[in-house]
Amino acid sequence: PEHVLTMEDWGKDEIHGLLNKAQEFANQPSKLPNQRLYAANLFFEPSTRTKISFEAAERNLGLDLLHFEADTSSVKKGETLYDTVKTLESIGADVVVIRHAKERYFDELRHHINIPIINGGDGCGHHPTQSFLDLLTIKQEFGIFHGINVVIAGDIFHSRVARSNLEVLERLGANVYVSGPKEWMSKELLHRYVPMDKAVELADVMMMLRIQHERHAVKMVAGPDKYHEIYGLSEEKAQRMKPDSIIMHPAPINRNVEIADALVECSRSRIFKQMKNGVFVRMAVLSHVLEKQQGGLLT
Ligand code: CP
């Protein structure tokens, strides 16, 4: 089956094809399958946007949902991820979406599960559908990726969004920079580093990231107020952004930490547009994998 696990698996033409399909869904959201198909969303880590927008996307496509809750499932009795997914496949799921804390959880599944697996986020690893919705949002805004200055700022080290986006944006021709605490960047990224004061003047896209407290084994680099002052996008810093530049954030947001409360819904912000686009790219991804699996599935 065709799985959607990392952005690295996608060639440029395939990425643009997927974004075009997502844009078609944005223009005309409903498209029904010509047979009954089941989707199961297996979320072993918390989620609001990814889980609910997959549900919306599945319902928009006319798929039936097989409900799964990790906390009330036999995972609690020790059943493995592999046996859980194999069980869903046996019961009749046609596609599974999985979010799991283990980085690259999908390596043990990809060659043994015979239905498409869509990665809804693996630990600090990858988040391909977030990346697709970010790409769609940038493409809608600027039409192209080539030459666009994207600054990814904040908790880079723990961010699967940063990892997925860095690689694909660079491959599509954007100039990708990083900002935030250097302690939260690998050495290989330091040549892309720009301090926030410079970043806000340079960026066409300021992509702010949440501090992932749940993944921090070490002490925070600064308290929330200090963090906001040094590394956050404050109202004062936002005033120095270029006239047509935009603010993005995958959310959830720590208001007044990485981004000022007043900027979350300001005219530059595309944060809620990103969430809306999440439904369309997930429809496109589901439709893509099911068409490959079933052949000419959707009417
Ligand atoms: N952006 C994102 O993945 O949000 P959730 O964790 O709420 O799904």
From TrEMBL:
Binding site for carbamoyl phosphate: R49, T50, R99, H127, Q130, A251, P252
Gene3D superfamilies given in the database record: Aspartate/ornithine carbamoyltransferase
GO cellular component, one term: cytosol
Domain Aspartate/ornithine carbamoyltransferase carbamoyl-P binding per the UniProt entry, residue ranges: 3-140
Similarity section: Belongs to the aspartate/ornithine carbamoyltransferase superfamily. ATCase family.
Catalytic activity reported: carbamoyl phosphate + L-aspartate = N-carbamoyl-L-aspartate + phosphate + H(+)
Identification of the protein by name: Aspartate carbamoyltransferase
Organism expressing this protein natively: Salibacterium salarium
Biochemical pathway: Pyrimidine metabolism; UMP biosynthesis via de novo pathway; (S)-dihydroorotate from bicarbonate: step 2/3
Keywords, sorted A to Z: Pyrimidine biosynthesis, Transferase
Chain ranges of the Aspartate/ornithine carbamoyltransferase Asp/Orn-binding domain: 147-288
Classification via NCBIfam families: asp_carb_tr, PRK00856.1
Oligomer status and interactors: Heterododecamer (2C3:3R2) of six catalytic PyrB chains organized as two trimers (C3), and six regulatory PyrI chains organized as three dimers (R2).
E.C. designation(s): 2.1.3.2
Keyword Protein biosynthesis: no
